[in-house]
Amino acid sequence: MDRNQAHRNRRRLLKTAHFIGLFLTMLVICVPGLWIVLNSFRPTVEIMAKPPVWVPSFTLDHYRAMFAGAGEGGVPVFSYFRNSLIVSVTSTFIAILIGMSGGYAFARYRFWGKNSYFVGLMLFRAVPGVALSLPLFIVFAKVGIIDTHFGLILAYVAMNVPFTIWLTDGFFRQIPKELHEAAEIDGCTRWQAFWKVEFPVARSGVASAGIFAFLTSWNEFALASQLTRSVGSKTMPVGLLDFTAEFTINWGGMCALAVLMIVPALILTFIVQKHLIAGLTFGGVKG
Amino acid sequence: MTEVTLSNVVKKYGALQAVHGIDLDIQDGEFVVLVGPSGCGKSTTLRMIAGLEDISGGEVSIGGRVVNDLPPRERNISMVFQNYALYPHMTVRENLGFSLKIAKRPGAEITEAVNEAAQILGLDELMDRKPAALSGGQRQRVAMGRAIVRHPDVFLFDEPLSNLDAKLRTQMRVEIKKLHQKVESTIIYVTHDQIEAMTLADRIVLMRDGHIVQVGTPLELFNAPVDTFVATFIGSPPMNLVDGVVEDGQIVLDGGVTLPVPTTAGRLSEGQAIKFGFRADNLMPAGHAVDEDGAVYELDLAVTLTEPLGTETLLFTNMAGVEVQGKMFNPRPVRPGEKMNFRLMLDKCHVFDAQSGHAIRR
Ligand SMILES: Nc1ncnc2c1ncn2[C@@H]1O[C@H](COP(=O)(O)OP(=O)(O)OP(=O)(O)O)[C@@H](O)[C@H]1O
Ligand SMILES: [Mg+2]
């Protein structure tokens, strides 16, 4: 009786501790984001107030200013949004196409130098983007693709392909090779066997790879800030800098644009979430 | 007419040679079982017939057509894999109809063929489930259904039952045999289980280390093994082997037992080291034997262990320092250590050369 009680108490205690731990972790992760969203709805005075104002007031001024200023000399949000979208979607699509083919090849075929090649791809990821920005800038400038969508897409594809290969390789590796063999015996060509059997089975994995690639391009700043110059190609992360003047920073406007950046990423993640979870717990698929 | 012919088929994986020149003629409608210990090249051989593995040398022909360079889809074969390889994203119905859909057959024909296969294998209830929601036995059935839907010339099975529990395995074994009687196609079946081989095969191909050791009907392999490997692989329990030598025209076992086996008729020479082989069925205690004609040698042996199987009991005992097994019919309880008078049926015994293991006198 007593021991039961003690046991129950201990379990309750552990559960509470667990909950507090989780809460603190989530706090650390979420508060900055939440702070950005909150700030985007507060008047500038309140953002800068010391000591901070705890009970926020609500205003849409920053959004109004951002969208209104778009056409007339303010920050051209719509162009930035369009640039971001074009660059991210195109580069993700291409990176997935190339990365998936590569991942499949690594998972299914034996070829000379396979392992060193694979390690090489991963090492490429170890080079920080900033270190590449100057050489890339020079090369791009010489070729004449600086300040273009094409140039940025090229850079992002190169950046995302190794990771996509690595991820999809893992997913394809988990699909028993008998599946495509069975499909081939059932009358498929190698190509059909891939598209009708292996790709649908690995779809969730590819979707995860896709969302990682998209978010990387969507949020990338270091390279974009060097490779883009004008409204025609600047992406949103670079556009954030427009809110800094020589002596002042328009925190409210910056936060509003940041929210505009977060929303599509959030929506996309929600849409793909189901696949993402299925993809990350892929081991459940059995022949 | 779909006979399958292998002539001098070789498979090399780099420096490693997995299959060493196999010759095999399989008749139309024959049920052939490739059997052998793990790693002997059964799967590799089957996969070369299927077109899933390149052929390093020799020729494979199906229905008189050399298929060495044809992809699997042009060989008109079906294959059932050990892990079933069902398409996880399709329902049972879609799994069954996949091959016909790929072949662009009309919908009505697909439906009909799928329903027919489902009926044969009792899958009607499961048609709208995904493979993940099926038990092992059901998956096995779907895999077989997928194979029969297309009415292929040749069925290939690679250890289709090894993932099932013992009872289900016995049951599916019977179903496969019935299926063969129904479809009358050529079947090539790979297993490492000699019981499966014995029960299913019209002809058994026993392999070891990439070579064929013996080809024949189950009874041929059981009654006339070409060497000690076949003798111990086929049959359960395995054949007893006792070392001995030829002396004065008789066989003397290592323990000093002299067996009146006439050695003059065979190709035995004086002083030759041999292995003397006999099955448990041919060593029976007096009073518990099945009557058989022929020469009998009587000897007293102490029983060390018994294994009652119901209609018979296996008796473990020692002969010439080797553990051998005998069989007691109409069994009665036997205490370990009990001495019994055994009868060894000499006419059913085998003699193998001790060095090469080849059978000498049958
Ligand atoms: N892809 C491969 N690369 C190199 N060696 C291989 C490959 N596949 C098979 N082997 C070798 O070929 C030999 C025959 O293999 P195989 O799979 O045919 O054996 P098996 O008779 O089917 O055995 P099991 O009963 O275990 O399935 C083995 O020694 C194996 O190690
Ligand atoms: Mg095998």
What does this structure look like?
- The complex is a heterodimer of chains A (287) and B (362).
- By secondary structure, chain A is mainly alpha-helical.
- Chain A folds into two domains: 66 residues, no CATH class; 212 residues, MetI-like (MetI-like fold, Orthogonal Bundle).
- Chain A is 76% helix and 0% strand.
- Chain A contains twelve helices and no strands.
- In chain A, helix 1 crosses helix 12.
- The longest helix of chain A is centred in the N-terminal third of the chain and has 39 residues.
- Chain A is flat.
- Chain A starts with a helix and ends in a 7-residue tail after the last helix.
- By secondary structure, chain B is of the alpha+beta class.
- Chain B folds into two domains: 230 residues, 3-Layer(aba) Sandwich (Rossmann fold), CATH 3.40.50; 114 residues, Nucleic acid-binding proteins (OB fold (Dihydrolipoamide Acetyltransferase, E2P)), CATH 2.40.50.
- Helices cover 23% and strands 35% of the residues of chain B.
- Chain B contains eight helices and 21 strands.
- In chain B, the strands form four sheets. In chain B, strands 6-7-8-3-9-10 form a six-stranded mixed beta sheet, sandwiched between helices. In chain B, strands 13-12-11-14-20-21 form a six-stranded antiparallel beta sheet.
- In chain B, helix 2 crosses helix 3, helix 2 runs parallel beside helix 4 and helix 3 crosses helix 4.
- Chain B starts with a strand and ends with a strand.
- Chains A and B meet through helix 8 and helix 9 of A and strand 6 and helix 2 of B.
- The complex binds adenosine-5'-triphosphate (ATP) and magnesium ion.
- Adenosine-5'-triphosphate binds next to strand 2 and helix 1 of chain B.
